[in-house]
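During the reporting period the student researcher (J.K.) took over the structure-prediction task from the postdoctoral fellow and processed the backlog of single-chain submissions. One of the processed entries is reproduced below for the supervisory committee.
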Amino acid sequence: MIRILRNFQLKNLTTFGTGGVGRSIYLLRSSDLPIVLGEIDDFVILGNGSNVIFSDEYFSKNILYVVPLSSFEGINIVSDLLEVDANVSSSALSWWCARKGISGFEFAAGIPGRIGACIFGNAGCFGSDFSKNLKSIFVFDCISKTFSEIDSGNIQFSYRKSSIKNKVILKAYFETSFNKPESVFARTLELLNKKKLSQPHGIKTFGSIFRNPPGNWAGKLLDSLGFRGYKLGGVMVSEKHANFLENIGGSTSDAVKIIKLMQDKVLERYNILLEPEVRFLGEFKELPILSGDEL
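J.K. obtained the following structure tokens:
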């Protein structure tokens, strides 16, 4: 059953917990999505709400919020391929694979977000990402209003980017490689613990602020400029990792000012333009320099 909420507080839909008011929020299940997509224009799709930040202003577009799947729902083996609903969380997929002894997804346990968004942004860590084992995706084309399957060979992937545009990912198919379940489980736990030691968790954050520039690390550059622990209003740079912001009672405006300041200072000192990894949704009075993928 699809529910429609009007004038909803957007801070309740994201992991960072800021934002203004949304005009219309459609609460729906994965199975409802193909139906709704053919009927609604001018929308954004929201899953876990990580890696995005809404402006403090009124948001006029329709928001399609896909409610989380339960436990390990939406994951199956079909003809030796791993079939995954786009609404499955990265963590759920990783642990499901660990139990089945399917290797190649150990890195995904500590990544917030759902599979559709992870493929779109080619999320990854520890030298791996979602493009590595991807066979194909089943999508809805927002321009032609049609459904189709796209082979991964026809998608251009790079660091935290893909060439997927104007399409909604509904399902993904991955190649499978089997190993001993205890080995996969141990490696998954090892990488998750490693991530917890170096990055903040259990607090309000949207994930990494910037992509790492070629041959360098955004966190290292920001650390060298003394940003760790920097605070403006109710938003602060994490004491644990300088490439993360924590919301301690602030607004999107506070966060954007810090991000812009960070970008300006790194460019001034090192002549390196840091590209934001977070997506900015809504109307903003000011923004950092964007590459075009963040809107």
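The committee noted the following: Residues 3-66 form a domain with the Uridine Diphospho-n-acetylenolpyruvylglucosamine Reductase; domain 2 fold (CATH 3.30.43.10).
J.K. will present the remaining backlog at the next meeting.
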